[in-house]
Amino acid sequence: MVSRKHKRTAMYKNLQLLRSITNSHAHSKTSIILDASKYIEELKRKIDVMNQEIAVAQDFDAQASLPQVRVEAQEKGFLIEVFNKRSCCGLLVFLLEAFEELGLDVLQARVSCSVNFHLEAMGAKVNEGADEVDAQVVKEAVLEAIKNWSEISEK
Questions:
Q1: How many of the other CB atoms lie within 10 Å of CB of 83?
Q2: Cα 131 to Cα 10, 121, 142, distances in angstroms
Q3: What's the rounded Cα separation, in Å, for the pair 69 and 53?
Q4: Contacts 24+ apart (CB under 8 A), 97-102
Q5: Which residues lie below 8 Å from residue 119, measured CB to CB, with a gap of 6+?
Q6: To the nearest whole percent, how much of the chain has pLDDT over 70?
Q7: 11-21 confidence digits (pLDDT tens)
């Protein structure tokens, strides 16, 4: 008899605790449990939304960590600048290969790879008889080289 009373008292206290946690105004056991179930579903939904926001923020951070590229047409070639806030081990090789594929000779370059990555290069077309290359084509090739480097460096 005492055991049954203790169980009821414990159940009542737990239901009241559940009621207060879920901000339920219900009085019956069934209504309190239903309100708690709805509350749990709402919490799950909020967690999903937060996880999506975190994923978007991480994608934004990943994109922000990609190097910035500027290509400017000059009288005898292109001024190509690539900058990133962090050091990019191996990126220079990918960029030089992209220049080679375009048929650009690097006439002059300054590169810093210590704390951050900064490349400033002057590139010119090797043979004038080949297809004409404009600044947009050079920029797209540099961005493609960065993308290729990024995919390999993540592995």
A1: 14
A2: 84, 21, 18
A3: 28
A4: 97/145, 98/141, 98/142, 98/144, 98/145, 99/123, 99/141, 101/141, 102/133, 102/137, 102/138, 102/141
A5: 80, 81, 82, 83, 92, 95, 109, 110, 111
A6: 90
A7: 999 999 999 98
Q: What pLDDT does 53 receive? A: 82
- Strand pairing category for 77-84 and 117-125: antiparallel
Tokens, residue 82: 């690539």
pLDDT band at 125 (very low <50, low <70, confident <90, very high): confident
> Would you say the pTM of this structure is higher than 0.70?
no
The residue whose two tokens read 């559940």 is 18
Token pair belonging to 112: 């810093």
Tokens of 145: 């080289």
pLDDT in tens, 44-96: 998 988 888 887 777 666 555 677 899 998 888 899 999 987 777 888 899 99
Instruction: Indicate the pairing of strand 68-74 with strand 104-112.
Output: unpaired
